[in-house]
Amino acid sequence: MYGWLYTIIIYPIIFIFPAYAANGAPVIFGKGSKPITSARFRGRPVLGSHKTRRGLAAGILCGVLAGFLESLAPGFGFMLAVGILESIGTHAGDLLGSFIKRQIQVKEGHPAPLLDQYPFLVLALAFALPLVSHFPSIYGIIFLFALTWAMHRLTNLGAHRLKIKEVPW
Ligand code: CTP
Ligand code: MG
């Protein structure tokens, strides 16, 4: 009876969880680490100072760990592979988002609607395409786009209140 609840909400959350872990971990572990690069392109920083080495490493590790833990559940063995691909995709997308933000002259940490929320999600899904047979349905994917928007707002507000993040966006 609640099959739709599983296919549209619960399974998509299970499926994307490693990407969320990979995206969220740097906020906690990245503080005070060295930038990935201080290189410049067309007179602007390539990534800027907020994309750090420890943040990148911790993000990928936490995403893979999340996928590994999920893979222990019966029938979810494929989640380790999904977790590895999503974690790499998440950070490829996150770095791409920062690169575009710098090129359009948005400063580190300043908001850029869509670019702050979606490059990581889109590339996490794209990198996981080899496991497309395990993808959520199209409604599940649409749900994930809405959920990601809401989570971005909520987690940033929460991190700001907890003084982990300087700005509430
Ligand atoms: N972070 C990090 N290393 C990364 C990614 C993120 O250390 N590779 C940390 C930084 O402290 C960053 C925080 O996680 O400030 C939030 O990440 P995000 O919102 O993606 O970065 P922004 O601060 O918004 O920077 P940008 O404008 O480049 O997107
Ligand atoms: Mg941000």
Q: Mind explaining what this structure looks like?
A:
- The protein contains 5 helices and 2 strands, in the order αββαααα.
- It has 169 residues and is an all-alpha fold.
- It has one domain.
- The protein has a two-stranded antiparallel ribbon with strand order 1-2.
- A hairpin with a 2-residue loop joins β1 (40-41) and β2 (44-45).
- 31% of the residues are buried.
- The model has no long low-confidence stretch (mean pLDDT 97).
- Magnesium ion binds at residues 109, 116.
- Cytidine-5'-triphosphate (CTP) binds next to α1, α2 and α3.
Strand order of the largest sheet: 1-2
Mean pLDDT: 97
With helices defined by DSSP (H or I, 4 residues minimum), what is the helix count?
5
List the helices and strands in order: HEEHHHH
SSE class: mainly alpha
How far apart the termini lie comes to 38 Å
The total number of structural domains is 1
Number of strands: 2
Multimeric status of the protein: single chain
Morphology: globular
Biggest β-sheet description: 2 strands, antiparallel
Radius of gyration, taken over Cα atoms and rounded to an integer in Å: 16 Å
Enumerate the spans where pLDDT stays under 50 for 5 or more consecutive residues.
none
Brief summary of the model shown:
It is built from five helices and two strands.
Q: What is this structure's SSE topology?
A:
Blueprint: H1 3-29, E1 40-41, E2 44-45, H2 53-71, H3 79-103, H4 118-127, H5 138-161
Antiparallel strand pairs: 1-2
The structure holds cytidine-5'-triphosphate (CTP) and magnesium ion.
